[in-house]
Specification:
Order of helices and strands: EHEHHEEEHHEHEHHEHE
CATH superfamily: P-loop containing nucleotide triphosphate hydrolases
Number of domains: 1
CATH class: Alpha Beta
Distance between the termini: 27 Å
Bound molecules: 2'-deoxycytidine-5'-monophosphate
Structural class: alpha/beta
Number of strands: 9
CATH topology: Rossmann fold
Strand content: 15-25%
Number of helices: 9
Largest sheet: 5 strands, parallel
Mean pLDDT: 89
Radius of gyration: 17 Å
Amino acid sequence: MTSTHFVVTIDGPAAAGKSTTARAVASALGFLYVDTGALYRALALKGLESGVRLENPEALAALLDSTRVDLSGTPDAVHVWLDGADVGERIRTPEVSEASSRMAAFPAVRARLVELQRSLASHGALVAEGRDLGTVVYPDAEVKLYLDADLPTRARRRARELESRGIPMSLEQVTEELERRDQRDRTRPDSPLQAATGAIVLDTSGWSIEQQIERVLDIVRGHPSRPESGPEERAAGGSQGVGASENT
Ligand code: DC
């Protein structure tokens, strides 16, 4: 495990290929992989299941105080824990996507999860992906990226991914879902989705996922203060944990 502090942030709208890219880069370089969306999704699942009224500040605070969210595993096999149960699959439904975006607009929720995300940077080199990583969570990150792609490209990617999870949805439905969520994520007052100052913006429409990964790897490898490549650098399949543990 590398212990040098080095942070790569990948922000961008839904289904821009952030997760696939971040996982592959973390795996190849032996960095920690932090899927921040999974934290919002896990909290949203709890909110949905407990029927809590998010607009009620006391109810929201009680939910945050009584919920524990963890990440563990490797970049290729991330486990997402909600109160001790692995919810990795259950947080990928369209209902949870929508609920996580709504939940993410509440400053109390963001404050709690940002604290958890920052604590991870002390673990060494990491690649973190989400919406506000270069702007808010890790403003001093060594490499900041903003991955984008046009809506039809992103909708096709997300529809394929949902299909592979056994959740078939029409392209029209997926397109609407992405548009609604992006609009909310871009316009919320607290930590809206936007490219960080100094971020490298990549429009990946028309790129293959391999091209996308190669381009990002080139950028990270080209950074002068990247941790020494050594035995920890892997072609694929990292063995580094992504442990995050916090009472939320
Ligand atoms: O990356 P994702 O689609 O799994 O994220 C789900 C939702 O969580 C997204 O619509 C907005 C929210 N989110 C956020 O507000 N900030 C982050 N850093 C990550 C996700």
